[in-house]
Amino acid sequence: MDHVQLLTKPVAASITKPIELYIFIDPLSANSLRMQTVLRKLQLEYDHYFTWRYVLSTKLASLNTLGRRTKGCLTGTQLDFTHPALPSIAIKAAELQGKRAAARYMLKLQEHALLKTKEVNSYAALIDIAKETAIDVEEFISDFGSKEAARAFQCDLHITREMEVDEVPSIVFFNERIEDEGLKVSGMYPYEVYVQILQEMMSEEVMSNPLPSFDELFVRYPILTTYDVAQIYSITEQEAERELKKRMLQQKIERIHNNEVTLWRHKHKI
Predict the structure, then answer these.
(1) Residues 256 and 120: beta-carbon distance below 8 Å
(2) Predominant location of this chain (predicted)?
């Protein structure tokens, strides 16, 4: 691999499992969505070996006016505005309610972005998305305009610069030995490459968990693309679609789509 580099582990990071992954993504980019598919399969098979955190690495020209404009919006002097940083700050605002809240919010945000059902760079749309997600909306609105959410996003950008991540998505692997360097893998590789890296960092053979059934998969990940399902089970997209249609007929999942993308959603999950 040409895009592999050794890095020093951040002092503030802590590990409860032997390996920690820093996953650098732009939450709305196509390649980052594919990286999330890789992460889901890694979680299903090997999450007993690693913890992980997303680092939002949205490329931005300027953040100079964002704080003033957000404050104006919250005080009613400006009803709405758009900015490419807003989706990332919204995710960090949701994250102040916990990692799971942020994951639910990001999933709903990505759903609207893929289906083109909302202008996801819009402040008003991002508030509406919070209302569709199982989080405290009033707290989210307060946090969205807070220094804490903006600072959390800026911290992610700082980590991106500190680790010299210039390609998104990227993953940095750290082990539990603080003195050891991390391994930065820039860009996208086949799933088997990440498993191999995990095994090399463990210095022993890693044992995979069995993959869940289709029904169990949608309990854990309530919205998936055909590509997600195909990659997780190592089958073709045609085979995945046949299985998904069977479960749609059984009314276990529903299909939502536009001319560009098809999503499959668990019918009993928000």
Answers:
(1) no
(2) cytoplasm
Q: How far apart are CA 201 and CA 214, in angstroms?
A: 31
9 vs 123 pLDDT, higher one? 123
CB 157 within 8 A of CB 166: no
Q: Residue 159 in contact with residue 120, Cβ under 8 Å?
A: no
Segment 34-76, tens digit of pLDDT: 999 999 999 999 999 999 999 999 876 544 444 444 444 444 4
**Of the ranges 1-15, 97-111, 162-176, 181-195, which one carries the lowest mean pLDDT score?**
1-15
pLDDT at 250 over 90: yes
Residue 75 CB neighbour total at 10 angstroms: 9
d(CA 9, CA 58): 22
Rg over CA atoms, the chain: 19
Residues 193 and 1: beta-carbon distance below 8 Å:
yes
d(CA 182, CA 172): 6
Domain architecture of the chain: domains with CATH? 4-92+141-202 (3.40.30.10), 214-266 (1.10.10)
pTM for the full predicted model = 0.84
For the chain, the average pLDDT equals 88
Asked if residues 22 and 159 have their Cβ atoms less than 8 Å apart, the reply is yes
Question: Which segments within 30-105 are labelled E, that is strand?
Answer: 50-56
